[in-house]
Write a sequence for this structure.
């Protein structure tokens, strides 16, 4: 029973970490999309 | 191995069966549905739970997530997304992680099915029923998809277990627990109101050794406890919306997409067809006003096609029970995210379990075990199909009856084949005599 409770705590911790990383990935993806949207075309950047 | 297995206690054996079910569910989640797109009902459940945990209340998820428009939602009762909201609230917002914990609830259902089988007909029936629940796809396919049927199965099994425990030893506490569990069930799936009502009637009928006065009191306790759990949600709906809404408005729009030319004839007969609703423009107003419009649309169509309704209703029931266009139903299940091979497994399982379960019910009846509680989910899901459409998923509550009653038949068949009777301790003990009889027995009469 102690082992099951311990494993449950481990699972919950990893689930929490997974959720945090998923949120971070999503935020990063949205920021990249915004940067790409606001970035001028290559022709305009080229000298 | 057999002697090792026999040396274990019932609890250990049941936990081992649960471990098998856990492995199947986790493998299904990680290898099959892990990268599924979040959409449809699962989208609504996930985001409703998450938005609730973030303090937005019970709102329509899509308008908020897409455009930050707040629309109060009467679509679904809150039972399952309250469960998901708990995980979001403690920081576990990953859909994969939340589906994992739903799968854990599915494992809990296996344990309850085992206890139910034991309560009804002994330990071996409990273990066989739990084994069926562990491997039968129609028990576990919802677990990896984030659908409310996982919780429906859990709560219906708990309600049946309480009903049979009540039958064995009636008490007001057991009636109270039955009402509370049934109430939570109704908040998960509105169909459960009918199951709760039927189980409440069962309670009054099952306690045939109790005086009528006490039976009526217990019946009232079941109903009052159920109403107590449901009432905050119903009051909220009555206060928030212009038109009366009780548990949800899901039925109205469902009736609109299942009563039209496309669902009365041709390919989608007895199924749903979204354009039946989208080709109409509902009136302005909140979702309860639109629900009234959808309801009238469906009733008007039914009134205009009265002669066709009985045939369509029969086809809906046939579709639900794998008798009407079962192969097409497997293809249509893809719309809900089911894999074809799993749907085939579920259909073959259904075809095997249904006749076995009917045999099991006959055996239970012969042995004077009441079968009304087992029939309650079957009647309810069939009625649900009659008024909406035939769907594999809507049958979830009745799968418990199939598993346990089929287990009764398999154990009886095994005993007959071995030429042995039921071993001691396997026969379900009859309910104790009433108090006046007990007194006579104690007095040696």
């Amino acid at each position: 029973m102690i082992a099951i409770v311990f494993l449950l705590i481990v699972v919950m911790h990893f689930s929490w970490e997974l959720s945090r990383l998923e949120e971070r990935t999503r935020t990063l993806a949205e920021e990249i999309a915004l940067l790409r949207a606001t970035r001028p075309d290559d022709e305009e950047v080229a000298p | 191995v057999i002697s090792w297995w026999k040396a274990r206690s019932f609890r250990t054996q049941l936990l081992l069966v649960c471990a098998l079910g856990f492995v199947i569910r986790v493998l299904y989640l990680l290898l099959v549905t892990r990268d599924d797109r979040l959409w449809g009902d699962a989208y609504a459940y996930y985001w409703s739970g998450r938005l609730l945990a973030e303090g937005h209340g019970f709102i329509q998820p899509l308008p908020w997530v897409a455009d930050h428009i707040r629309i109060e939602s009467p679509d679904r009762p809150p039972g399952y997304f309250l469960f998901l909201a708990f995980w979001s609230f403690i920081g576990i917002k990953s859909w994969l992680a939340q589906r994992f914990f739903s799968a854990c609830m599915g494992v809990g259902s296996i344990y309850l099915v085992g206890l139910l089988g034991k309560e009804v007909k002994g330990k071996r029936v409990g273990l066989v029923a739990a084994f069926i629940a562990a491997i039968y796809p129609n028990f576990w396919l919802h677990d990896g998809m984030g659908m409310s049927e996982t919780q429906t199965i859990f709560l219906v099994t708990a309600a049946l277990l309480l009903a049979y425990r009540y039958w064995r030893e009636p008490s007001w506490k057991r009636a109270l627990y039955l009402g509370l569990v049934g109430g939570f069930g109704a908040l998960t799936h509105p169909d459960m109101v009918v199951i709760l009502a039927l189980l409440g009637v069962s309670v009054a009928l099952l306690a045939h050794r109790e005086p009528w006065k006490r039976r009526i009191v217990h019946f009232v306790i079941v109903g009052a406890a159920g109403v107590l759990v449901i009432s905050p949600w119903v009051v909220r709906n009555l206060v928030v919306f212009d038109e009366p809404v009780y548990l949800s408005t899901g039925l109205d729009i469902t009736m609109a997409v299942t009563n039209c030319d496309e669902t009365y004839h041709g390919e989608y007969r007895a199924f749903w067809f979204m354009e039946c609703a989208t080709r109409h423009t509902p009136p302005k107003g909140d979702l309860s006003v639109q629900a009234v419009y959808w309801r009238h649309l469906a009733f008007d169509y039914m009134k205009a096609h009265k002669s066709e309704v009985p045939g369509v209703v029969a086809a809906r029931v046939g579709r639900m029970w794998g008798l009407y266009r079962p192969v097409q139903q497997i293809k249509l299940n893809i719309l809900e995210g089911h894999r074809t091979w799993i749907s085939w497994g579920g259909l073959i399982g259904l075809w095997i379990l249904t006749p076995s379960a009917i045999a099991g019910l006959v055996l239970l009846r012969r042995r004077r075990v009441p079968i009304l509680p087992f029939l309650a989910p079957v009647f309810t899901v069939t009625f649900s199909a009659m008024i909406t459409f035939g769907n594999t998923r809507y049958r979830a509550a009745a799968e418990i009856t199939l598993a346990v009653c089929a287990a009764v038949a398999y154990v009886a068949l095994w005993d007959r084949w071995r030429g042995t009777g039921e071993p001691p301790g396997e026969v379900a003990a009859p309910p104790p005599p009433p108090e006046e009889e007990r007194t006579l027995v104690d007095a040696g009469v």
In short: The helical segments of chain A are 2-38, 42-45.
